[in-house]
Design goal:
Layout (H helix, E strand, L loop, with lengths): L3 H17 L19 E3 L7 E3 L2 E5 L5 E6 L10 H12 L5 E4 L6 H9 L4 E4 L7 H4 L3 H24 L10 H21 L8
Parallel strand pairs: 5-6
Antiparallel strand pairs: 1-2, 3-4
Pfam families: DDE_Tnp_1
Organism: Endozoicomonas gorgoniicola
InterPro entries: Transposase_11
Length: 201
């Protein structure tokens, strides 16, 4: 009761503001679940509204996932590209030579900032007015990175289908985060197990 009563009061308040007073309640102030109050409202383009958390994943050439960030709220993808790139630079102490990125992250500012951070080739899945020659050194490189990004989508699909990332049964934020990281770690262990063992001299 101590946990639920304040949440119920918040739901009543936001309903009064939205329905009776005609206010537009900011998404970060809304409570959409009494049992999972940490849940965010996620709207992607014209698609259906979803209730969960937005995840940002980084995958390397090895097909292993190198980073996971569980976002708060529903930040625009374009605002998250450079922070995710800087996380990679902090972790590995160098910028990646090339990056294949989802179309939602595309912008001329992100392209310029990524190049300034030391990334040679940045291939956005959707060009959004950008020229291939500005993103990468050749059409061939763009095509290779474009196909690599499609492989990342396959990895994310595998995370959802085989490692439980599509539905989380946990009811608090800490356990939600643990569930997501467990899925990624298990995925990486499977990828590692499939690599051939090094030859013994």
């Amino acid at each position: 009761m101590d946990r639920l009563l304040p949440l119920v009061a918040a739901v009543v308040s936001q309903t009064e503001r939205r329905v009776f007073k005609g206010e537009k309640v900011p998404a970060q102030e809304k409570i959409v679940s009494l049992y999972e109050p940490h849940t965010d409202i996620i709207v992607k383009d014209r698609r259906d509204v979803q209730y969960s958390h937005k995840l940002n994943l980084t995958q390397g050439k090895s097909r292993m996932f190198l980073d996971l960030v569980i976002e708060t709220g529903n930040p625009a993808d374009s605002d998250r590209f450079i922070p995710m790139l800087k996380r990679q630079i902090d972790i590995y102490e160098r910028a990646p030579r090339q990056a294949a990125v989802d179309g939602g992250y595309a912008s001329s500012t992100n392209l310029e900032d990524a190049k300034a951070l030391g990334v040679n080739d940045v291939a956005f899945h959707k060009k959004r007015g950008l020229e291939v020659k500005d993103m990468v050194k050749s059409q061939y490189v763009y095509r290779k990175l474009y196909c690599f990004r499609a492989g990342i989508e396959a990895g994310i699909s595998w995370l959802k289908r085989c490692f439980g990332l599509s539905v989380c049964p946990c009811q608090d934020e800490e356990h939600f985060e643990a569930w997501c990281w467990a899925a990624v770690v298990c995925y990486n262990f499977v990828i590692l197990s499939r690599y051939p063992a090094p030859a013994i001299a």
